[in-house]
Amino acid sequence: MREDVETVLARDPSIASRAEAVLHSTLPALWIHRVAHRLYRRRHRIAARVLTNGARVLTGVEIHPGARIGRRLFIDHGTGVVIGETAVVGDDVTIYQQVTLGAVGWWRDMLRPSGERRHPQVGDRVTLGTSATVLGPLTIGDDALIGAQALVLDDVAAGQRVLGEPTVGRPRKRSGIHRADSA
Q: pTM value?
């Protein structure tokens, strides 16, 4: 827990003290997940789900109790973060809001052998930008950067940057309609 507080203090510029870091909105989700994951591994699946459902309601972060989470995970503005059952998240990973580490869909997952991974494996020191969606049993290599709004469906090499399509501004079309007060 102390390491988690230090991680928040180091990575969130809006946090000015350890006392403030303890109150970071996503720490309860991470701490509850750790307890739930232990219960899940001991086959106390219902108790684990009750805990993680409570964490989701409290923080907006949904981490399945089966997911394996590394050390010093930092979830910034965690609302809408979803981490699936067979996901593996490495050490020193940063996740921003609305990120999904999900499966491709039940219609494919039901065809996989029981116990096979359905969710992404994320390496160490990876950054997942706002609204990034990473689907399927793919691997994201160490030190990769997944940009905001990127959709990732294939493996990402170590150190690679995957960026979403940037918005392009276009001139506004003039309509033939004029406001009455502009005449």
A: 0.84
**Residue 61 structural domain:** 2-162
Element (H, E) at 161: strand 161-162
Q: Find out whether 148 and 132 touch, Cβ atoms under 8 Å.
A: yes
Domain-located, residue 69: yes
Q: Which region holds residue 31: left if phi is over 0, alpha if psi is between -120 and 50, else beta?
A: alpha
CB 153 within 8 A of CB 170: no
Find residue 134's DSSP bridge partners. Answer: 101, 152
Share of the chain above pLDDT 70, in %: 95
pLDDT tens digits, 120-163 = 999 999 999 999 999 999 999 999 999 999 999 999 999 999 99
pLDDT for res 25: 85
167 or 162, greater pLDDT:
162
Q: What is the pLDDT of residue 176?
A: 59
Judge contact between 154 and 146, C-beta under 8 A: no
Angle, in degrees to the nearest 10, between helices 2-11 and 27-41: 140
| Residue at 16 is within a domain | yes
Helix H or strand E encompassing 9: helix 2-11
Quote the DSSP letter at residue 103.
-
Task: Read off the CATH number of the domain in which 112 is found.
Answer: 2.160.10.10
- Taking a C-beta distance cutoff of 8 angstroms, is the pair 90, 71 a contact? no
> What's the domain count of the chain?
1
